[in-house]
Amino acid sequence: MLRFNLLSEQDFSPEKHIEKILGKVEDGDMTVACWEPGQVSPNHCHPHATEIYFCFQGGGVMKTPEETIDIVPGSFVVHPPGELHEYTNGPERTLLFRVRYGSDMVSRKKGWPSNKNFKLSQEDLDYFAQ
Questions:
Q1: How do the domains of the chain map onto residue ranges?
Q2: pLDDT score recorded for residue 57
Q3: Its pTM surpasses 0.70
């Protein structure tokens, strides 16, 4: 059995959101993701892993190519392997609990418009060129 307290594990940074892996079990991991107001994730996917986010407090907006949904406390979203998604945090600090499971947790980034210093890796360029 694993037990975590998200409030005591939280860690925030004004530079970028913090994802802190709390534990691993077989082909998965559990993470607390801490977001300051207005922070945005890269537009990315996990080709070989399912990713589940549960909003503990705060909230924002999750976008995929097909839809945009509001994330509020108590809601959760499931991204199947390969689904492109981007999270934009709202006006207050947010704690998300994330579970990922699959054969490989690699993230493939398609872009990160809010990060002016971001450059795509050759691996990401090759993945999205397929």
A1: 6-129
A2: 97
A3: yes
